[in-house]
Amino acid sequence: MKIIVTGGAGFIGSNFVFYERKKHPEDEILCVDSLTYAGNLSTLEPVMNDDKFKFFKIDIRDRDSVYRLFEDEKPDIVVNFAAESHVDRSIENPTIFLETNIIGTSVLMDACRKYGIKRYHQVSTDEVYGDLPLDRPDMFFHEDTPIHTSSPYSTSKASADLLVMAYHRTYGLPVTISRCSNNYGPYQFPEKLIPLMIANALADKPLPVYGEGKNVRDWLYVEDHCKAIDLIIRNAKDGETYNIGGHNEMKNIEIVKLICDYLDKPYSLIEHVEDRKGHDMRYAIDPTKIHNDLGWLPETAFADGIKKTIQWYLDNKPWWENIISGDYMNYYEKMYGNRKVLD
Ligand code: NAD
Ligand code: TYD
């Protein structure tokens, strides 16, 4: 089988490439990535010389290049991870989110219609459901929870989901969608909460917690997400949507303190800063459907996953130190330089 993995030079996409190479060595992986600031070719070094792996530097918005690839390679499955993925960046500049996350998705699906495909899988997010109140721990996101977005990022992802279902209904495209909670693990770009806090703590820099840090996210180790997608693309029925999450809800402040504890750094590094605009309060996934239909269960407990992740960042300093030089420093200065520090 030939599987196109878009966004395979990013965080979850690269972990998925590694997972597939190990789990299904007979399958060929064609990685498509335009290498934005979030994509790193060095991440893919372990598989670059593998004869069942090919890398294509293609932007998913570029219809001609995408069509040429489909014509040359005739893929069986497409898994679309390629996206602008950071909420804070979407608040600064929504346009690129609409272009990549919505238009890019439509280009990929048009190629699937034109050249034929066994399955198009859309990697989506629990953020399409909006947020839940902090005082209702009984409430969870189910697959039929109404879409109700907050940020330009989540709106662009929800729009793409609607388009995917429209292509299924209108053109009969064989599609599936997965909506996962927050991932953590190796190769996550150090602008997201966990790797940012690890990198800053190691450098004894302030740890910028938005507002009071009471917002809750439902954390899943990245390999468990990859395993769920693998089950869906091979076993799920066309037209199905699955929520993915491991019932691991934590407040941001708890995560940051835990990182301080593991790295033996003082809580005095924590700095409460001006809150994110439109900040979602709580995400929480009900994963019953994927468990019942496909037998999926998370394997990595948070206590183990976070230790492995911190250890990975300690062992792979050149990977992230390289990333946080240059352009990233301009981003950091812009986002955090003028952010009001709260008392
Ligand atoms: P990421 O930002 O680390 O990686 C995105 C990758 O897509 C990068 O390699 C980038 O170069 C590539 N890309 C961006 N625009 C492109 C374009 N126009 N053409 C081709 N490639 C392009 O993101 P991630 O955290 O790995 O997320 C992957 C997917 O999973 C996204 O669709 C995201 O919405 C979804 N998701 C992420 C999380 C999470 O916690 N990170 C949770 C649920 C869902
Ligand atoms: P993030 O990793 O950006 O993921 P998402 O917004 O998609 O959930 O942020 C996770 C949580 O951490 C979110 O509530 C915002 C918060 N956060 C901070 O408090 N400080 C930071 O510097 C960052 C990047 C995030």
Any key phrases for this structure?
single chain; alpha/beta; Rossmann fold; binds thymidine-5'-diphosphate; EC 4.2.1.46; two-stranded parallel ribbon; globular; binds nicotinamide-adenine-dinucleotide; NAD; 343 residues; 13 strands; NAD(P)-bd_dom; 7-stranded parallel beta sheet; NAD(P)-bd_dom_sf
Show the helix and strand layout.
Layout: E1 2-6, H1 11-23, E2 28-32, H2 45-48, E3 53-56, H3 63-73, E4 77-80, H4 87-92, H5 95-115, E5 119-125, H6 152-171, E6 175-180, E7 183-184, H7 193-202, E8 207-210, E9 216-218, E10 220-221, H8 222-235, E11 240-244, E12 249-251, H9 252-263, E13 270-273, H10 288-294, H11 302-315, H12 317-323, H13 327-336
Parallel strand pairs: 1-2, 1-4, 2-3, 4-5, 5-6, 6-11, 7-10, 8-13
Antiparallel strand pairs: 9-12
The structure holds nicotinamide-adenine-dinucleotide (NAD) and thymidine-5'-diphosphate.
Thymidine-5'-diphosphate binds next to helix 7 and strand 8.
